Structure formats: structure tokens, C-alpha cells
Amino acid sequence: MTDCGIWIAGHNGMVGSAIKRLLEGQGRKTLVVDRSELDLRDQGAVVRWLKANKPSSVIFAAAKVGGIYANDHYPADFIYDNLAIETNIIHGAHLAGIDRLVFLGSSCIYPKFAPQPIPESALLTGPLEPTNEWYAIAKIAGIKLCQAYRKQYGRRYISVMPCNLYGPRDNYNLQTSHVIPALIRKFHEAKLAASSQVVVWGSGRPLREFLHVDDLAKGVVYCHDHYDEYEHVNCGAGSEVSIRQLAELVGSVVGYSGDVVFDVSRPDGTPRKLMDSSKLAALGWRPEIDLRSGLASSYSWYLEHIENQGQREA
Ligand code: GFB
């Protein structure tokens, strides 16, 4: 049978592009389609495209994503776009006879006060963090879609839950970005302007687990090749830092020596969300990029791609 390639849905995003780089580096055939040619929220178009192109499997990295501000301010976009994309791709893959699919979620699927480190079994055991419950509900629905098609039709659809991610092709728009690109940009601009202070949102106390997207890509491809179970699987760095520590680290990588002030009128979000990734570790995956060197390479990427070419919109 002809190998039509692995469809990377969302290949232009930070996660999808990392997966594409990795698969192509391994000499594997990939399939992509641009947003201008296929709107993933259009059910008929997605089903037609899948039936016509027949990918051998799907890695599902397409999503409407954003940081704490975007999640909190655009709840309808986050729940609608993600639910639509998920139902269209997962149902469409089934209709097109595609037997293998990897869905990507997020650690925000877990309850706000989940036990730490968070095991996969903590799903649906308590209330969610309000700043991102819309996105979280959509991602939980994605896990359940995969499980439903596995249970009813025997499809080998699996889900992988990453922690907070960063790396090349991150979004550097200060309103919609996650904390790492926001701090890289804020510290860099403060250094250039010789500003005496940088404003960091919230109290600085929340703890976050950050994984470089190239490490995630290896975990996802590993799961695509080797993991075939009903339960979703966590994919995290295994360590956490406070936002205050992160700000100090970014300041030192960027070379900014002014003060950091915390704007407590901004939300902290979840106090802590360190995942237990021992299930994936037992399968043989380990993260390789430590936070400081990942931040240094992200700052180089920012200087090369964003700073000199104007800011990308989200
Ligand atoms: O990265 P972030 O937006 O995502 O924020 P979440 C992490 C923490 O950094 C929060 C603080 O406590 C923010 O208040 N922070 C400090 C900042 N300064 C800044 C800044 O300039 N920009 C941003 N964005 N944050 C998102 C979820 O949650 O993470 C999504 O809303 C998803 O659903 C994603 O799960 C991974 O970790 O709070």
C-alpha cells in the first residue's frame, strides 16, 4: 500500500512545526495543508480533504492557543474553535478510515487543586482553573472523543498532555502570548530602552513546568509509534520554577540588570501544575533540553526572527 504520510494538523504552529522538523529529520513522509486551503472549523471541508488525501495517520497539533489573558478574555473563541476542530478532525479521520491519531491537549485539563505531581488519573476529579476552563473543557472533550472512537470502533486514537511549552515559532504578542515569550520580549525591550524596571503579571508565586517544544515533539512521535492505550499520557519536564525564578532566569539570559516588579492586579491562574510523567518515562522518553539553554536558544530565535522583522500577530 502507498504511504500517504503522517498528516500534521497545525504544521505552522510552534508544536506542529517542531513535530514536522523531527519527522522529516527521521526521513519520514509528512502531509500538510495550509489554513488558506482548509479551514479546520469547516466540517464538510475537513471530511472531504481527509477522504481525498488519506493520510496514513494524524498528529493533531492544531488548536486555538494563548496565554492567561487570551484564555480569560476570548472564552467563546477558545471553546468553539477547539471543539469544532476536534470534532471535525477526529470524526473525519474515522470516516476516512484512518486508524491512528495522536491528539494533543494541555496540563490545564486537570483540576485547579489537583494532587502534585498530577497523575493521569486526576482528570475530572475537581473544578478547573477559571481563567482557562473554556480551553480545558474543549481539550477534555478531545480526550473523550479519542476514547469514544476507540471504545465504539476500535480506532487507535490516543492523547498526549504537554505541560507549558516554549521554543521556536512561539507567539511574541504581549496580549495573547504565554509567559516565556512575553518575558523574553519585555526584558529585551527594557534592555534596549535602558528602562529601570520590567513589569511581570501576578504575584510571581505560581509554579509552572516548562518543556522545550523539541522535547515534546520527541515524546509525541514516540507515542505515535509505541503507545496505544485508552488513557491519555502526560508529557512534562519533571521540574518546576516559580514565575519570579523564571523572570530572574530570563533577565540573566537576556542580560537585563534593572528591577522586576509584580503587577498583582493581573491574575496568577493555577497555583501549581506539575505533571507526573512517569508513565511516558517508563516507555523510554526523557526530556533533554534544560530550561536555561532552552531560554537562550529561544532568545536567539527571537532576535533572528521577530525583533528585526516586526511583531507577529497571534
Ligand atoms: O504562560 P501563561 O499565560 O499561562 O502564564 P498559564 C503563566 C503565569 O505567568 C501566570 C504569569 O501566573 C501569569 O500571570 N505571567 C507573568 C505572565 N507575566 C506574564 C506575561 O507578561 N504574560 C503572560 N502570559 N503571563 C495558560 C492557559 O495558562 O497556559 C492555557 O491559559 C494553557 O489554557 C497554557 O494551559 C499552557 O499557565 O497560566
Distance between the termini: 40 Å
Order of helices and strands: EHEHEHHEHEEHEEEHEEHEHH
Number of strands: 12
> Any low-confidence stretches, pLDDT <50, length ≥5?
none
Shape: globular
Main sheet record: 6 strands, parallel
Strand order of the largest sheet: 2-1-3-4-5-10
Small molecules bound: guanosine-5'-diphosphate-beta-L-fucopyranose
The chain-level mean pLDDT equals: 96
The helicity comes to 40-55%
Taken as a percent bin, the fraction of beta residues is: 5-15%
Secondary structure layout:
Layout: E1 6-9, H1 14-25, E2 30-31, H2 43-53, E3 57-60, H3 68-73, H4 75-95, E4 100-104, H5 133-153, E5 156-162, E6 164-166, H6 179-193, E7 197-201, E8 207-208, E9 210-212, H7 213-226, E10 233-235, E11 241-242, H8 243-254, E12 259-263, H9 278-283, H10 291-307
Parallel strand pairs: 1-2, 1-3, 3-4, 4-5, 5-10, 6-9, 7-12
Antiparallel strand pairs: 8-11
The structure holds guanosine-5'-diphosphate-beta-L-fucopyranose (GFB).
Defining key terms:
314 residues; 6-stranded parallel beta sheet; two-stranded parallel ribbon; 14% strand; binds guanosine-5'-diphosphate-beta-L-fucopyranose
Quick synopsis:
With 314 residues, the chain is of the alpha/beta class.
Write structural notes for this entry:
The structure is a single chain. The protein has 314 residues and is of the alpha/beta class. Helices cover 43% and strands 14% of the residues. It is globular and about 60 Å long. The mean pLDDT is 96. The protein binds guanosine-5'-diphosphate-beta-L-fucopyranose (GFB).
